[in-house]
């Protein structure tokens, strides 16, 4: 499989090298020494090529994506029964999960640019799985929300690192960095697993309403959390046993740790018997970088805050970066608002359209949900195929296609007349939206400087989580029988498609730093 990826005849369309490709780092940083070192590192990665190590990273990092969507779907699935048991009608547990996700992205993302990617990558899933199991044992709404927030903190931080770690080891040649888009296919897998587990435990082990809803009669949500937590723990163990993650060489170089960066690359080259002409002397001959400093030299609170501020400022270091980062953050904010509103309003809106729109049995409801989530797996796969086989589209073109297609399906929901149309449009909307999702999650870290990549990626996820805070509030206080929210969501995602065409950086044409 590794050889097939590298030797595909289509892959020769856009083989890149340092002599024929401008690196994005040239447009981002004025530190000439750092730019030179980044080019040498990327040249070495291209020379080593795609190995079984990268294939393992694809699946193990994809597990992080699956965990994110899986746990979000689980909390959404059990929320009604939680509210029945604890006498609540406002979706407070959703707010706890979103706030935890914001905190996790901030904590793990900002620290990953200070102390490295490997530690957060290895511990985040383990802690998330542990907190999930504890969540299932809680006996009050307050403690339930606390551990929902803690589990969200961990898997939210993990999501920041999945794309960053995979990207910083991938070759650019033969368009191989487009593989980052494929990670999002694991979202659909995670969601599908979550729905299947909820289907197995919730229907026969849950209260039918808030009246006389005792814990003994409402244990389905507990079983659901236990099983999902156990799955996440298994994935966490796989991460540290199936692969021994090297610290990313781009992080090491951007922190003046040239010897470690060289050794990280050499370990991979030696293990898989691949050529590597880079030497430590070549790296060190470039000189000393000035744009960043090693966090270990000054671990005081003041020094840490100073470095974090410098990492943030890199994202706005010149006119190109100001424009790009501003448009990127705006896209994430719009996505964070419109996507959850669509799914928060949809069930109630459909209920006003007639009894034949939604399935009339528990089996039918879960079956339809599984179908839609399985179809979402196709979105990132379509996005990757477009990037790989139609490279002229670039990331911006695929983002535009995904956004406009999603907008059309959102608008289409206002015209559905029967159950078959509901399932078809739901499946198509999931698939189209995940074309956009998959590409945006890959595009964002690709266009960020390596020294601030985790920080920038964390900011994107924090912004979209912040947008998600408002969706349940809007759904709770608004008229959900109106079609207006669907039109608003369709218009917002279409705006994101137009914004995509205005991004000044295009990773398919310029190598990421």
TrEMBL record:
Top-rank taxon: Eukaryota
The name this protein goes by in its record: MFS siderochrome iron transporter 1
Taxonomic lineage of the native organism: Eukaryota, Fungi, Dikarya, Ascomycota, Saccharomycotina
